[in-house]
Each structure stands twice: as structure tokens, then as C-alpha cells.
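Sequence in, structure out. Go.
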Amino acid sequence: MADVQFGQRFIDPQGVMLSRLNTVDGIFGAQVGVSIQATELRVLDDNGGLKASDANALLKQLATLRSSTRNCAVAD
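Output:
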């Protein structure tokens, strides 16, 4: 899941998200033996209620957003 600003920064934000996830997958696969698989790549239209600047509050807002929508990956 990417915010509005991320979506505006790149011509192909989902391609950038996938590229970053592939990098993370390679690192985790090599070092930890864990595979990362994206089930959905989505750019938010209005940041979906993600307004907090405090990290803990923002994670709570993200959890609320994710529980009300389909499963998806997070990118920042």
C-alpha cells in the first residue's frame, strides 16, 4: 500500500513498489530464509485516513485501514 505522495512521485508507482518488494524478498530470502510475496499493490487515492505523524498512531491507523479493506502490501 502506498500513499498519495508516493503515487504522484513515480510514473509507475506499482512497478516501483514491486521492485522494492523484490529487493526485500532477495534480502530476506538470502539472510533469513523467508520469502516475501505481494498479494496486492495499491496506491491510495486519499491516504485512507492515514493522517498521524507519530509512528505508533500511524501504525494503528494502518491496521484499521487494512482491517477494513482487502489484504495488501505496504510501501513507503
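Check: Helices lie at 4-9, 13-31, 55-68. The radius of gyration is 13 Å.
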